[in-house]
Amino acid sequence: MTESGKVIDIKDGRAVVRFERKSACDSCNMCLMRRKDMHIDMTMDNPVGAKKDDTVIVELNPGALTAAAMLVYGIPFIVMAAAITIAFLLKASDVIMGVVAVGFAVLAFAAMVFMQKKVKFRRRPEPKIIRVAQAAGGFK
Questions:
Q1: The pLDDT value given to residue 63
Q2: What pLDDT is attached to residue 112?
Q3: What single string gives the DSSP state of each residue in 4-30?
Q4: Largest CA distance in the chain
Q5: Do the Cβ atoms of 56 and 4 come closer than 8 Å?
Q6: What order of strands is seen across the sheet that includes strand 2-11?
Q7: Residues with Cβ < 8 Å from 113, sequence gap 6 or more?
Q8: What is the pLDDT of residues 90-102, one digit of tens each?
Q9: Could you give the 3-state DSSP secondary structure of residue 117?
């Protein structure tokens, strides 16, 4: 999977690439970010010698994207479903089931955030700049 981004800085020979938000974000509002703040900056190796203000094509690891989506959406969903099942088997009221489900989903998300910060994961494959699509002064 490839994505285009703009080099906004060069630090120690590595490029800081900004990826703008997607049009799908227009109607979502799930992350509660303001429209003008919707971008991601990533620092990565610069094997093609891109310069500031160049537009570059970056290759993303689809396996890493799938794993990230599974962490963010899958695990809280599984925990929430398990909580609802347990509450149902204990014949809890609907309100209690809802509170338990949301509470467990929040706890699962908090645990993932804590794990990400405290546990040292193996080095994941980084996105790679594969070419310059447009140089700062024109097409390349």
A1: 73
A2: 77
A3: EEEEEEEETTEEEEEEEPPGGGGGT-T
A4: 68
A5: yes
A6: 39-44, 14-20, 2-11, 55-59, 128-135, 138-139
A7: none
A8: 888 888 888 888 8
A9: helix
